[in-house]
Design brief:
Layout: H1 14-27, H2 31-36, E1 46-49, H3 52-62, E2 69-73, H4 89-92, H5 96-101, E3 117-118, H6 119-122, E4 127-133, E5 138-140, E6 147-149, E7 151-153, E8 156-158, H7 162-176, E9 179-186, H8 199-211
Parallel strand pairs: 1-9, 2-3, 2-4, 4-9
Antiparallel strand pairs: 5-6, 7-8
Length: 218
């Protein structure tokens, strides 16, 4: 597979433009606008789930043999490691090309759904079907409040400066616009025993996605 085939064209399709409008409205917390801009499910299926296994099942069900699927996550979603996902692994192992190019059946391939690409790995590229793994580096309060943006340092979350906050927000813009055909958003459901994984942080994101018109498959 030629990696150039995954590069988005200069002229965006109406479907992509609608997705971009939805993502912009979501990240700006314009709830009504986001709901109005939700892509047509017949053209661009989109859903969310609190189960990583269900997210993977959804991707396998939707992805045809000649298409490509993969997990995506913010580079700052460090605590996804609690579910076995390290968003910095791909870059650390210099395995980026294998993730994008190796065929189905190769454990290094994105289709294996084991290692997520982060926003830096996939910027400027597209994948047919994306599983966006939402971290608590970027969590929502009430629908009309600002995002809670954090960076994990050592063993705790810290408040980043304004420039880093912009990077993290724009990282989610990248992640949410990589899918060409459809996407599932996985919002983890922690059990509350880990102080770095507050259940409310994730529940608020799930509530927000429901408010802007994303259906749940749970």
């Amino acid at each position: 597979m030629n990696i150039a085939m995954n590069r988005p064209g200069n002229v965006r399709s109406p479907r992509a433009e609608r997705l971009n409008s939805w993502v912009d409205a979501l990240l700006e917390l314009r709830i009504d606008d986001a709901r109005a801009a939700t892509p047509d499910p017949n053209e661009f299926p989109m859903a969310y789930t609190r189960s990583l296994d269900r997210a993977k099942e959804w991707l396998r069900e939707h992805c045809d043999e000649d298409q490509r699927k993969g997990l995506l996550a913010s580079a700052d979603a460090r605590r996804l490691r609690a579910w076995g996902l390290d968003p910095r692994n791909l870059r650390a192992e210099k395995a980026w090309a294998d993730w994008f190019l190796k065929p189905k059946g190769d454990v290094r391939s994105s289709d294996q759904l084991e290692v997520p690409a982060n926003n830096f790995d996939c910027q400027g590229l597209e994948i047919d079907w994306a599983g966006v793994c939402w971290g608590n580096d970027f969590s929502a309060g009430a629908a009309d409040q600002a995002w809670c943006i954090r960076r994990f340092t050592g063993s705790r979350w810290t408040n980043p400066n304004s420039e880093t906050r912009r990077y993290i927000l724009n990282g989610y813009r990248v992640l949410l616009t990589r899918a060409r055909r459809g996407q599932i958003i996985w919002v983890p459901r922690p059990d509350g025993t880990d102080a770095t994984l507050a259940p409310k942080d994730f529940a608020d994101v799930a509530d927000l996605l429901a408010a802007v018109g994303v259906p749940s498959i749970d």
